[in-house]
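F.,

This is the one I mentioned.
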């Protein structure tokens, strides 16, 4: 079975998301983090669900009910979440 791995950049993205939503509403902070952190679990069983990107090994996946995209690298034994990016951001330069 594959493992889920968060890159340092993706973990930093989570900290930034938490800080932003904490300033708005503590409950919303927890809700957004829960959705982002659990979204890639489905990718463990279905690694090709996300759309291809211009980077041949990176795919993107929209986190339901959030404004975020996950950029991830599927591999035989793991799914590496590379970045978590707001969909309105210029993510064409990612990851």
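My design for it:
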């Amino acid at each position: 079975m594959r493992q889920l791995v968060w890159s340092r950049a993706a973990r930093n993205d989570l900290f930034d998301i938490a800080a932003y939503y904490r300033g708005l509403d503590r409950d919303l902070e927890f809700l957004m983090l829960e959705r982002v952190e659990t979204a890639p679990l489905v990718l463990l069983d279905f690694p090709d669900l996300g759309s291809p990107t211009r980077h041949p090994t990176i795919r993107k996946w929209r986190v339901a009910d959030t404004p975020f995209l996950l950029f991830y690298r599927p591999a035989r034994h793991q799914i590496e979440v590379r970045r978590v990016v707001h969909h309105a951001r210029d993510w064409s330069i990612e990851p």
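The two ends are 25 Å apart (CA to CA).

Talk soon.
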